[in-house]
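Q: What would this chain look like folded?
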Amino acid sequence: LYMVHRLVIADIEDVACLASYSRFWRQQFADHPTEKYCSALLLNHLPDGTPGSNEKYFMLSDIEPLDYELRQKLKRDMMELVLARHQFERTDRNFNRGCLYCRDLQTESRTEFLEHLYTKHFLLLGKAENLVFVDELIDAVQEKMDKLVCLFCEKIFKDRPTLKEHMRKKGHKRINPENKFYDRFFLVNYRSDRLKKTSPAAVAPKQPVPIKARDRESSPFHSEDSDSDWSDWYGEEQPTTCLFCSVAKPKIDDLKQHMKTTHSFDFDAQVIGLTFYQRVKIVNYIRRQMHVLKCVVCREDFPSNEQLQCHLREAGHYATGEQQFWDQPEFFFPTYEDDQFLCHLEDDSPDQSDDSSVVISEKVDAKVNTEAESLSLENFKLA
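A: My prediction, written as structure tokens:
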């Protein structure tokens, strides 16, 4: 595009599906002049770098409203497809694949397969609830091992015993968190939004670190110094933080009582009749609003956490907000890493049985989305 048509696409890495994006604009440019949608730039160099005189280039970016709407739609469509695949992988009980190390593995789900790799062979690929396209991830890992490549340092070895001994001694039984190839397998990287950058002083103390879409927290590894820091696989019991302030309690019942007493907010009463995933969205929505210093009800912005808390208290806006605001696909994703509040959510909606609440380590009697079974990374043209 740049060399032939002198067209530059700004922030192309944020385009969820480049093929669909290109088809749309090809049609638009066929019916309208380029200048209608693009910013024109006059430069003194040709595309090959040789000097020129007032060479005209065109930039296509989300400053153009039509481009912005297209990018947002592609992100939403991508998210819906990814979530469908993720849900299928969580509920499918027909998974059948041999272990990468031994031959005595018999599992019915991808979660059991990943747990087997970790508990029996100390091979950590990630938490099942954070992963998507698990089959492709396992294929990629197996291909590397078949080529005698270390998953972590990516060095090549002469034979399989040498490779296995190296990975065992060096603690390299995990994927390389710096390799961007693995980003596609982590659900958090499909978020359609980007968190507003906020100075540490503006956030209430003792809050967890917010998730960023493509940083090292995208992978399950948090330690740069330790080669054996796999403690987050099952996680340690941690206090749960209040949805509206920095107070944390070791027991969820005590925390809910705190919210009733301090904030006049009865969480259980607010979510009666809602499904498990709707409750997840509410928690993530409130967390997000608190993080970006915005009221959950009137959505007014505030310059500091103290002023936001004062507004919530005086206006009585300690609530969940309107459904049109929190019932959005983007709130499937947690605002904070390992949010303990999400671990205590239950599903008691009248139209679903207790067996429908998803517990990753247990068998579930949920309906499998058969259409999602055919979804794979081959369906997506990621930029």
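The radius of gyration is 24 Å.
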